[in-house]
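Researcher: Structure prediction, please.
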Amino acid sequence: MLAVATVPTFSAVAAEPRWPTPDEIKAARDRYPMPPIVDIVRPTGPLVPNLPFERPALDVEAIARLYAENREAFAEVKAAEPQLRIFVTLAMPEASLKLLARQAAKTHAAIVIRGLKGESMTETVAAVQRILGELRVDWQIDPPAFARFSVTRAPTFVLTAQGAGAREARGCTKECDTTNAFVSVSGDVSLDYALNVIARTKPTFASDAQRLLSRLGGEVNR
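Model: Predicted structure follows.
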């Protein structure tokens, strides 16, 4: 038996390329319109979120006003009167600083620091705010005073004799004659302890130390 197989044949005709008709171009433009030229050339960037304004937790202006009020309140103290300064550093334990601040408020003593904490006024003000709270204390940043009273440790308690404050106001510096002009006590102690030491060991300053000690509700321990 002879089988005859037929193989189908295929033919392909290549389609001729053509340009779209005007109607097809218009339809494409209507479907995908071009953006305006101003949108194309406008610079793009990250959008700033529209967040509501809130005052910072630290109100520097309010603290500055409080500091000014404190200085005005203590400005009435005459330079001729004995002056008590407590030299501290903000690196001291906060509990110790708060105790000294309370005692300074009662005795009208000034708390003196050498400079800014972390070279930042904001950090310094924040630290002072935590320590003072609502206390009215004369708080000073006075680097030359550390040299003038030879302060090398903190805390150091300096009681200035009557009249010495007036010499300072006239520009007295470390080179001035400070013999018997002030007495100082250094060490991690409270103000009442330092005043007790002064009253017991420095007769010239004993009456002033006793008067300040009485404001703390204490008396000299003999």
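Model: Strands lie at 83-87, 110-113, 138-141, 156-160, 182-186.
Researcher: Thanks, that helps.
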